[in-house]
Amino acid sequence: MYLKNLRLYQFKNYESFEVDFSPNVNIIVGQNGAGKTNILDAIYYLALTKSYFHNVDLLSVQHEKNLFTLKGTFFQTEESTENSFEVFLGLEKNQKKILRFDAVPYTKINAHIGKIPLVMIAPADDEWLYGGSEARRKFFDGILAQIDNLYLEDLLHYNHFLAQRNSHLKQCEGRISRLDNTLLLQYDHEILGLCEKIYQKRKGFLAVFTPIFLQYYQFMVSEKGTTFEELSQSISDNLPQNITETPSLSYISHLAQDDFATQFQHNISQDIFKQRTSLGIHKDDFEGLLNGYAIRKFGSQGQQKSFLLALKIAQFFVIYQHKGFAPILLLDDIFDKLDDFRMQKLLEILQHKDIGQTFITDARPERSQTLFQNFAKPYQFLNI
User: Fold this and answer.
1) What is the three-class DSSP state of 277?
2) Through-space distance between the first and last CA atoms of the chain, rounded to whole angstroms
3) pLDDT tens string for the chain (384 positions)?
4) Are 332 and 361 in contact (CB under 8 A)?
5) Which of 30, 163, 244, 379 sits a CA distance of 20 to 30 A from 331?
6) Which residues contact residue 107 at a Cβ distance below 8 angstroms, ignoring those fewer than 6 apart?
7) Containing H/E element for 114?
8) Is the entire prediction scored with pTM above 0.70?
9) How far apart, in Å, are the Cα atoms of 55 and each of 92, 136, 193, 291?
10) Whole-number Å distance between alpha carbons of 188 and 172
């Protein structure tokens, strides 16, 4: 699958803009502030119905305007341009977001998630290491939502009932006498059931994801040895690899405790006092470790960069395995954050046969021209 044509109207810094893309590598160059990243964010919107960089859709409307629209024409394969579809997304102030697939509107926008699989690599990914638990949950939830629509439904339902429960707790104003036990039991029944389902899926997914991530990390840090082609084949064949640095991912959840349901219900006094639900999968966290130690505290800058890149590469190939075709890959100003060694590793990855349509932004066109002069795949430069 690839994006052939993109049209923007009153989106961020673009009054009106249209561009055609290569099904292979698209290198978007221009000065800082020209709008390179905004093009990537528009593609992200069309795939996942929201911005990569913020949660408020109105921030994407051009200043002093009332709406924005995005249109993308996609083709299923490079070989055949007959099987195409168009995605339209529009937002007007004080109106609901509109999403249409081949002119047919969605009744549920989340039904679109997973139809256009996508992976984004950007400087903001540092939040996985240095930010709060929300960034790490978002990463894994984002993968699961693209490969398992039932998981996304469960997560949305959980967030709905959690919001309802928290709203009631706030109405109690810290007094247990104001608690509606019948209403609370209804919320608790839904929340506890969804907690268990989501916890089991996260736990099961991490068991599959971690070995793949571990092998790609080893590729990122190895000076010599296995090529990326050989590594990818060994992973698909389930062959063991020689690991010299051992990264791991630890899943931290209240659900790992014995008899979580009893603890959840016994915690009502604390919840009334805090006016929010303090136990549940919305408090889950994931920790990155290297040889058993927190990488955000004890890892070198190179190890941390390799760790983050390996997470994203593993994300790409896990989605690929589930979908049977390559996700669209977006790389935003990634060369500014990498040393020469990891830059060359990334270029080797991008030349792999299973990497599909790729978008790269760079404020230094001469750098990209040098890096890609011996690139094995077709590419095109787009000047913004």
Assistant:
1) coil
2) 24
3) 999 999 999 999 999 999 999 999 999 999 999 999 999 999 999 999 999 999 899 999 999 999 999 999 999 876 666 789 999 999 999 999 999 999 999 999 999 999 999 999 998 899 999 999 999 999 999 999 999 999 999 999 999 999 999 999 999 998 988 999 999 999 999 999 999 999 999 999 999 999 999 999 999 988 765 666 666 666 555 544 555 678 999 999 999 988 999 999 999 999 999 999 999 999 999 999 999 999 999 999 989 999 999 999 999 999 999 999 999 999 999 988 888 899 999 999 999 999 999 999 999 999 999 999 999 999 999 999
4) yes
5) 244
6) none
7) none
8) yes
9) 16, 16, 27, 35
10) 16
Q: How far apart are CA 321 and CA 319, in angstroms?
A: 5
Closest of 24, 20, 54, 21 to residue 38, by C-alpha? 54
> 126-129, long-range: CB within 8 Å, 24+ apart, which pairs?
126/308, 128/288, 128/308, 128/311, 129/288, 129/295, 129/296, 129/304, 129/307, 129/308
Place of tokens 């004890």: 298
